[in-house]
Specification:
By secondary structure, the chain is α+β, with helices and mostly antiparallel strands. Helices cover 53% and strands 24% of the residues.
């Protein structure tokens, strides 16, 4: 069988994808969603300052991935997502509790309140959707 560069790339991509999916099913992934209410925000700039402060603090203190999930133009509301990966589910459990506590402290010092915080693990059933 003659294999050109595009064909080899396709085979390697499939092998890599199978490897990543295999690893994904083994390694636990924890995610945290934070809903912020920023009463003191009188402009979009005020909101961004608080959100950036919380995101930067969590990234630097815990080495987690952080992003604003719903970047709306509402000045007094924000949603932040935090994700971490580790071979230890127990480690992730403690980490997410610590991240939530730090987010509450950082938000409060910036004039915001965490009105809702939900965290969970990505399950193997969830990973089935990513394989397709």
């Amino acid at each position: 069988m003659i294999c050109n560069a595009a064909c080899c790339f396709s085979h390697r991509s499939q092998e890599l994808r199978e490897l990543v999916v295999c690893k994904f099913e083994i390694v636990p992934i924890a995610y945290l969603t934070l809903e912020l209410r920023i009463e003191g925000a009188h402009s979009l700039k005020d909101k961004r300052q608080v959100v950036r402060s919380v995101k930067d603090h969590l990234r630097n203190a815990f080495n987690v991935s952080v992003a604003e999930l719903d970047p709306s133009e509402a000045w007094q509301r924000a949603t932040i997502g935090v994700v971490a990966i580790s071979p230890s589910r127990d480690y992730l459990d403690g980490l997410m509790k610590n991240v939530e506590d730090a987010a509450v402290r950082t938000a409060n010092s910036g004039g915001a309140d965490v009105v809702d915080a939900v965290w969970d693990f990505l399950t193997e059933q969830d990973s089935g959707n990513l394989q397709e």
